[in-house]
Amino acid sequence: MAIAESELIINPNGTVYHLNLLPEHISDTIITVGDPERVAKVSRHFDEMDVQVAKREFVTHTGYYRGKRLTVISTGMGTDNIDILMNELDALVNIDFQSREENEDKITLNLVRIGTSGSLQNSVPLGSHLASHTSIGLDSLMEFYPLAQSEEETSIATALQRELGLGFRPYCVTGSQKLIQKIAHDMLPGNTLTCPGFYAPQGRTLRGGLRNPNLLKTYNSFRHNEYMLTNFEMETAGYYSMGRILGHEVLSLNAIVADRVNHKFAENAEQVIDDLILKVLDRI
Ligand SMILES: O=P(O)(O)O[C@H]1O[C@H](CO)[C@@H](O)[C@H]1O
Ligand SMILES: O=c1cc[nH]c(=O)[nH]1
Predict the structure, then answer these.
(1) Over the Cα atoms of the chain, what is R_g?
(2) CATH classification of 114-284 is 3.40.190.10, yes or no?
(3) Ligand 1 proximal residues by C-beta, below 6 Å
(4) CA of 119, closest atom in ligand 2
(5) Atom of ligand 2 nearest to the CA of 118
(6) Which one of 31, 141, 157, 251 has the largest count of C-beta atoms within 10 Å of its C-beta?
(7) What is the 3-state secondary structure (H, E, C) of the chain?
(8) Where is the Nucleoside phosphorylase domain (predicted)?
(9) Predicted confidence (pLDDT) per residue in 228-278, tens digit
């Protein structure tokens, strides 16, 4: 059945609503970053560039790196933007924009996020590169999607709900094993908490206060069998859950720039990110 024009919104020039892209504008191998200015920090290594598009926080560059066609795209901050990004990227490859019907043969995208993140454990030092093997979302995005979770994932999420005294159950999802093996085999393995904010949800207070003054301590000490939280940021669980729902491979990589146990921020944050960008480009 054709998808209505109010659901899949196509701009007058044929591009998808927010990303402002045509299907031929993207590769099926995509690097994503939060900061729009980080896009050029990836694409400056390309040998050739054939697409440069910007709308709102979504800046897209597509080109060639050592003969491989790659797309790099920024998302801004938060899982609400990941809802838009993943749906519109999926539409570009799996929906026919003329008939507005799903394509019979589906394309699986390979997505690698290069983000910044704060450490929750002494075992995750400033400057490290951490691969999210799983992610737990404290945001409400998955209250609205039929996300399938394993018994183990549900049991971890239920334990964290109890520990934090939340009125809803967080969601827990794993990343792509295939991409972990290809790109992150030598990076620190971690379990990344995705928070619906940078300040109070990450236990930071400037003048707004905290409803739970023990939040950071609870994140640090949470255990469920062998499972512990290693770091936090604001998007990974959105990626992993939308990837599972839509059938795409997703890996989130974290440049650790803040140490919340010892209250430090990396002096060389840009270098840590640049090193991670080069590692990903070489392996993707
Ligand atoms: O560096 P990026 O990719 O933006 O990621 C992290 O940094 C932002 C907060 O400073 C949030 O988006 C968080 O997830
Ligand atoms: O502490 C941090 C650092 C980067 N990004 C976050 O979301 N939190």
Answers:
(1) 19
(2) no
(3) 33-35, 77, 115-116, 198, 233-235
(4) 1
(5) 1
(6) 251
(7) CCCCCCCCCECCCCCECCCCCCHHHCCCEEEEECCCCHHHHHHCCCCEEEEEEEECCEEEEEEEECCEEEEEEECCCCHHHHHHHHHHHHHHHHECCCCCCECCCCCCCEEEEEEEEEECCCCCCCCCEEEEEEEEECCCHHHCCCCCCCHHHHHHHHHHHHHHCCCCCCEEEECCHHHHHHHCCCCEEEEEEECCCCCHHHCCCCCCCCCCCCHHHHHHHCCECCECCCEEECCHHHHHHHHHHHCCEEEEEEEEEEECCCCEECCCHHHHHHHHHHHHHHHC
(8) 30-275
(9) 999 999 999 999 999 999 999 999 999 999 999 999 999 999 999 999 999
Token pair for 116: 């910044």
Angle separating helix axes 236-246 and 79-94, nearest 10 degrees: 30
Residue 226 burial (10 A CB sphere; 0-12, 13-18, 19+): exposed
Residues of the chain with CATH 3.40.50.1580: 1-107, 114-284
Residue owning the nearest CA to atom 7 of ligand 2: 233
**CB of 192 closer than 6 angstroms to any ligand 2 atom:** no
Architecture of the structural domain at 1-107 = 3-Layer(aba) Sandwich (3.40)
Structure tokens belonging to residue 211? 């409803």
Q: How many other C-beta atoms can be found within 10 angstroms of the C-beta atom of residue 40?
A: 15
